[in-house]
Design goal:
The chain is built from four helices and three strands. Strand 2, helix 3 and strand 3 form a beta-alpha-beta unit. Helix content is 49%, strand content 20%.
């Protein structure tokens, strides 16, 4: 029973070390490629799946971050659903604003002002 417990613990420890190594390598790839990307993108790894989050300026930068992370040996999958651009969230289509929900200030029309005189 104790042997099984030790093997399970050592496997989990080995996986945690492997994930930390992958995270470090992905962060390094981002920092060496484009230093500004490394500063704005967070990287977490669990069981070989790299989760990217943060904000980048363009969709092209988002694709570049995913490409760099994918190029690191040991990465099984990329989860970039929390990697946002200033324009839209990847995986979601941008929606047109609803004019009826707008809280925009609109001055009174000039016709009403003339009626008051």
């Amino acid at each position: 029973m104790k042997t099984h417990s030790f093997q399970h613990y050592s496997h989990n420890l080995g996986m945690a070390v492997h994930d930390a190594w992958i995270t470090t390598r992905v962060r390094s790839a981002l920092a060496f490629s484009e230093p500004t990307l490394g500063m704005h993108v967070n990287v977490k790894t669990h069981a070989g799946t790299v989760a990217l989050s943060g904000r980048v300026n363009t969709h092209k930068e988002c694709e570049r971050v995913v490409e760099l992370a994918r190029s690191v040996n040991g990465v099984n999958e990329i989860d970039a659903k929390d990697l946002l651009t200033h324009v839209f969230t990847p995986g979601h289509l941008p929606e047109a604003p609803n004019a009826e929900e707008s809280t925009e200030y609109r001055p009174q029309s000039s016709a009403k002002k003339m009626d008051d005189q």
